[in-house]
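Suppose you are handed only these lines of text.
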Amino acid sequence: MTLSTAPAAPPGPAASAPTHCPYCALQCAMTLTSTPHGATPVTVAGRAFPTNRGGLCKKGWTSAELLAAPGRLTTPLVREDGELRPATWEEALGRIVVTLVGIRREDGPDAVGVFGGGGLTNEKAYLLGKFARLALGTSRIDYNGRFCMSSAAAAGTRAFGVDRGLPFPVSDLDDADTILLLGSNVAATMPPLLSHLAGARAVGGLVVVDPRRSQTAELTADGAGLHLQPAPGTDLVLLLGLTHLVLAEGLADLPYLEARTSGFDAVRRSVAAWWPERVQAHTGVPVALLREVARRLARGRGTYILTGRGVEQHVDGTDTATAAINLALVLGLPGRPSSGYGTLTGQGNGQGGREHGQKCDQLPGYRKIADPAHRAAVAAVWGVDPKILPGPGVPAVELLGMMGAAGGIRALLVHGANVVVSGPDAGAIRAGLAALDLLVVCDFVLSETAALADVVLPVTQWAEEEGTMTNLEGRIIRRRRAIDPPAGVRSELDVLADLARRLDAPSTWPTDPAAVFDELARASAGGIADYSGLSHAVLDAQAGDGVAAHWPYPAGSTGTPRLFGERFGHDDGLARLVAVAARTAPHGIDAGEPFAPHAPGRLTLTTGRLLEHYQSGAQTRRVPELNAAQPRARAELHPATAARLGIVDGDRIRIRSSRGAVEVDARLTDGIRMDTVFLPFHFADEQCANLLTDAAVDPISAMPEFKRTAVIVTAITDGAEVAA
Ligand SMILES: Nc1nc2c(c(=O)[nH]1)N[C@H]1C(S)=C(S)[C@@H](COP(=O)(O)OP(=O)(O)OC[C@H]3O[C@@H](n4cnc5c(=O)[nH]c(N)nc54)[C@H](O)[C@@H]3O)O[C@H]1N2
Ligand SMILES: Nc1nc2c(c(=O)[nH]1)N[C@H]1C(S)=C(S)[C@@H](COP(=O)(O)OP(=O)(O)OC[C@H]3O[C@@H](n4cnc5c(=O)[nH]c(N)nc54)[C@H](O)[C@@H]3O)O[C@H]1N2
Ligand code: SF4
Ligand SMILES: [Mo]
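From them, the structure of the protein bound to MGD can be written out as follows.
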């Protein structure tokens, strides 16, 4: 194995590189042109591609500013006397290795944890999973996709036997006349996707389910569609009620259910008691609207049901996504031309990031780490004895909860996540991070999590590296290098390989992204997410920049744009309807004083996104234009609620939950339910929404409850809190 301490000699930077946006899962195509003497090193232009059709959102247009943003990390940092100071790579890596070896000797390999991210390229996600299992020997790896796609993934796997967010190309939506969009605000989170909803809007068929009149719900105005405004966390009841109506009105597709599914009888029984008046009482959605939606869905000549985080980030998120799938199956949508069910994957590589082995129970190719045949297949590619592979680890929230605990983890390596802002119950996460013997963060900016680290390693970003990403349609695309990284920065593949060598790891540790991809492709062969027919060269040679490369893509294939046309992924080829039940008794957030439903100032907090910021804001708060547009967290409150609490627009307010408190500005809007308050989670410190959220998780997916927290809202005047 040969390794250098600096990145391999770079190919000369292309004057212009066809690549994709650094942010979300739509992975809009763009061309970067290097302008070596400008203040911003590259300029960005939208590029024709089936997903974005040349369009970009504000984050995409301004993405290159981050390449030259002040505060870009270019040297490793180590903590000394409580402060981070610059260090050489040799010192930083040496310190990591000495500490890890000591912890491993004292407490075993599971005392070291790894936390990955859905923004990592396929190559990095793959190598990180391999690094955890072979170089550290730990089972304890998981990633921020647990906070994102886990409920939808669990539901999709359970129903279809395959978890690919959209089992069809986004452009199929163009032909739809009816789209039910549950808990997704695409107008803010994936603006170029709106062009694919235009057909449905034109015929009045866009149905948006959101407790807020989001920018997407606004698109239903003037006859373009319908907006259902349920109380946060009541979507499961809503979906049971819609399925009840479809059955009661004789609108189910019985021949499809008979030919292509199993489990229908149990689902029929499970929705029997959810008559519309009862659903209205639980959700607040009027009976007439429920009936109209059920009929519209059944009569549509091209009907799609799509879910987003609004319905998935709940303690019953898997069951809610399952109820959405059941509704789709009862209507006969999945696997049919011009109709279907899908979930809108979020992070840039949210799809690929959940396929290559950074999930705690997983090996590459979407394989199971507990399955002996899967272990043997991957161990053969790695050239190791399957016995040395650890077993399943624990999911993200549990992993973070183990920091500093007896039998827990003493060191954590973070790659591509800003957990102290974006994890639930962020106050507890901060305390956990402080209790570690060693926190290592790889990043290109000093995120809030990096600022707490013992060692910070500066890595290449997006336009400085080669790789692949898998977008929300399961389409594998190429990320291309447009400029040289700044001196002093190393690629994450190089960092992992160097650490592996210092830790005397078995196997080989390639650092060239194309070579890592080739190994990933081999390791995925025969798995659910099979990439074995692909390579960087194949992707580069494809017309239109990898346009057709949807997985599964086994050797000799031309890819799979549409899944489920003939059969679903289970051995019997059938889709499974799974009966799910809604909880009706008060639970979790409603239980107990002082947060009981009628306590003064008591509202339900839900959280989400703004167009201008991405996730924890670590990147977008450093882009001047984006930060100027949204400099602070503002809590959306209904004017009637605000009046009752003595709050006027722009007031400073305090929001507290059983976990913590934040201080933010009030923004009054009649687009939100009177019982609900909305906070974006892009901000840090006293504005961090996750100081309020709870670490309770879905029992199946381990998704935390980000979208429903009991809070008390009070005005603050002259620094003093006003009693409600
Ligand atoms: N601008 C921007 N775009 C992004 C991102 C970003 O951070 N910023 N992140 C990317 C990522 S990783 C993801 S996962 C996607 C997420 O994309 P979305 O799922 O669109 O994002 P959210 O804003 O989290 O939630 C969507 C909507 O759910 C609503 N909601 C809240 N609670 C409930 C509820 O109980 N029921 C229902 N039905 N709706 C509810 C919120 O009001 C919100 O309008 O966006 C991606 N794109
Ligand atoms: N309250 C609330 N909380 C939420 C959500 C919500 O809706 N409400 N949504 C959840 C969801 S869906 C998600 S996806 C998570 C995301 O939450 P985070 O994990 O915090 O996501 P990011 O802000 O994208 O953090 C990525 C970090 O990695 C860095 N980074 C980017 N690319 C790379 C790379 O290639 N290598 C390395 N080493 N670093 C990189 C970035 O600079 C940034 O610091 O937040 C979750 N948290
Ligand atoms: S929609 Fe997503 S991928 Fe497209 S430009 Fe915006 S952030 Fe980038
Ligand atoms: Mo996400």
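What can we learn from it? The pocket of iron/sulfur cluster (ligand 3) is lined by residues 21, 23-24, 26-28, 52, 56-57, 59-60, 190-192 (CB under 6 Å). Residues 77-147+349-541 form a domain with the Rossmann fold fold (CATH 3.40.50.740).
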